[in-house]
Design brief:
Mean pLDDT: 74
Low-confidence stretches: 1-152, 541-545
Largest sheet: 4 strands, antiparallel
Function: Probable membrane-associated metalloprotease that may be involved in chloroplast development.
Protein name: Peptidase M50 domain-containing protein
Subcellular location: Plastid, Chloroplast membrane
InterPro entries: EGY1-like (IPR044838), Peptidase_M50 (IPR008915)
Membrane topology: Multi-pass membrane protein
Strand content: 5-15%
């Protein structure tokens, strides 16, 4: 990318990029004529090729002319056709051919024919020259700088059109009247995919400067342009990006969003029911022959679905408070744990990192809170049927959080190799916690990825996302849930996250603390519990060593 917008192209530059037609008319004269009238060449201005996609009609290059080899005479030099010059008239042509007519009566008819042709050519020259001169004056008044090259905004799908480019006059107004010493002092500019990227020095607090620049931009141009205040990943310095707002309109889909979301939701209800019926899990193909058994999984599906629903309600409430528009949630089915949660698009542009953090953290915060309360109730409350669900205690080794709580609350009754009866609410709540935890993984456009970007910025979150996906890939070799989840992230949620209006200001410390707590809580849910539940087993291991 260049450091400044291109200046007005020269005639030679236009000649290189457009095809043109150069027409000349030469008038033959007798040998007795003077050297000045020996030949006359009329050069037409270059014309743009028909159908070329330009905003306004443009003259491709400066006019050319031919002079005599000896360079004699000042009159011939004045016949060069520039922007302010006019084409030769028919009278001037007649003066040049006048001496030729008086030399001999034998050539009168021939010369008259030649003069008539020349008059016709001169009229055509005048018409074309008049149009070209008018076009040149129009071009001088409205000059367009096409900035079609450059890197796109991260994660932003722009609908670019040749008609949506920022004119040079607008760029000058942006530099001189919108930006300023009190907000952002511009030192250079570069093309930026339908807009312009301004480099310079940020003055004052980023949030205040952004507000001032935005107000000036709206006063000058209304809602025509959108401002982004970002961090340049190349040098970690602030940059301002101005984009035509019309190019940032959301894309439309062929299938209505609600129809696709409803289809995914129905499948998710089925997998939630299926997950809580162990008999059907052993033989998935027999499910359609024993649909009546799905009612046995209704209680578990309701509890897990309630935790997922509270998660999404948390997002909706936070979005409403921050003025963020969300799309329809797509619930993702899973036959291992019932569901992988929901994928929800952010429709509009988020204002700053504070708002993004509140939005991303609200869902896991609500889901973890409800799931943890239900998990505790499951450990304390006896089974409703008096029997409960008989399990092998080794299952608690799969989660550091659940295994630690089981060891703390169940005590010596929790031993490997012995059967244990528990309230099934423990497993239902645990599934809800796991769904929230995998959505809190700091990767891509998951809640955890958005939390990481909001807290630490785009560069750190991008590296953390790559590391997390790599670790998930390794875990996928040993765990089928990790395998399907890493596939889902890679194809649907790997990002990058769309840019925020202002990405420089850090969130408040209390919100950062909530974000870190969510990431750590999710990690505790996903990590295994490495210690044996029976202390005697640990003693036996030490004795054997």
């Amino acid at each position: 990318m260049s450091s400044s917008p291109p200046s007005r192209p020269s005639a030679a530059a236009y000649g290189c990029s457009h095809r043109f037609l150069l027409a000349s008319t030469t008038v033959p004269v007798r040998s007795g004529c003077s050297e000045r009238a020996r030949s006359l060449t009329v050069a037409l201005r270059c014309l743009p090729i028909a159908g070329h996609r330009l905003r306004s009609r443009r003259v491709a290059c400066q006019a050319l002319t031919e002079t005599d080899p000896e360079g004699n005479g000042d009159d011939e030099e004045k016949e060069v056709f520039g922007d302010d010059a006019s084409s030769p008239s028919a009278d001037s042509v007649a003066e040049v051919n006048g001496p030729a007519e008086s030399d001999s009566n034998i050539d009168n008819k021939k010369d008259e024919t030649t003069n008539a042709e020349l008059l016709s050519s001169s009229d055509a020259v005048q018409n074309i020259d008049g149009d070209a001169t008018t076009t040149n004056h129009t071009q001088e008044n409205v000059e367009v700088v096409e900035v079609a090259s450059g890197s796109p905004l991260p994660g932003m799908k722009q609908q670019l059109d040749d008609a949506e480019r920022i004119p040079k006059a607008t760029i000058d107004i942006l530099k001189d009247q919108v930006f300023g010493f009190d907000t952002f002092f511009v030192t250079s500019q570069e093309p930026y995919e339908g807009g312009v990227l301004f480099k310079g020095n940020l003055r004052g607090k980023p949030a205040k400067s952004y507000e001032k620049i935005t107000n000036r931009l709206e006063n000058k141009f209304g809602g025509q342009y959108k401002l982004f205040l970002l961090i340049n990943p190349e040098d970690e310095k602030p940059v301002a990006v101005v984009i035509p707002r019309q190019t940032l309109q959301p894309e439309t889909t062929a299938v209505p969003e609600w129809f696709a979301a409803a289809s995914f939701g129905l499948v998710t209800i089925f997998t939630l029911l299926l997950r809580n019926v162990p008999v059907l899990q052993d033989n998935l193909l027999s499910t359609f022959d024993n649909l009546e058994l799905l009612k046995d999984g209704l209680s578990g599906a309701l509890v897990t679905g309630l935790i997922i629903g509270v998660h999404e309600i948390g997002h909706i409430l936070a979005a409403k408070e921050s003025g963020i528009k969300l799309g329809v949630p797509y619930f993702v089915p899973s036959w291992q744990i019932g569901s992988f949660g929901a994928i929800t698009r952010i429709v509009n542009i988020v204002r700053n990192r504070e708002d993004l953090l509140k939005l991303a953290a609200a869902g896991p915060l609500a889901g973890f809170s409800l799931g943890f309360i239900l998990l505790l109730l499951g450990f304390f409350l006896p089974p409703s049927d008096g029997l409960g669900l008989v399990i092998d205690p080794t299952v608690f080794h799969e989660s550091f959080l659940v295994g630690g709580l089981a060891k703390l609350l169940l005590g010596d009754s929790l031993k490997e190799g012995t059967q244990l009866s528990i309230n099934p609410l423990v497993l239902w709540a645990w599934a809800g916690l796991l769904i929230n935890a995998i959505n809190s993984i700091p990767a891509g456009e998951l809640d955890g990825g958005r939390i990481a970007l909001a807290m630490w910025g785009r560069k750190v979150s991008s590296r953390l996302s790559s590391l997390t996906i790599g670790l998930l890939g390794i875990a996928a070799l040993f765990n089928d849930v990790a395998f399907y989840w890493v596939v889902l992230i890679f194809f649907l949620q790997r990002g990058p996250i769309a840019p925020l209006s202002e990405e420089i200001t850090d969130p408040e410390n209390n919100n950062i603390g909530i974000g870190i707590a969510i990431l750590l809580f999710g990690l505790l849910v996903c990590l295994p519990y490495p210690f044996p539940f029976d202390p005697s087993q640990l003693t036996d291991i030490n004795f054997d060593l």
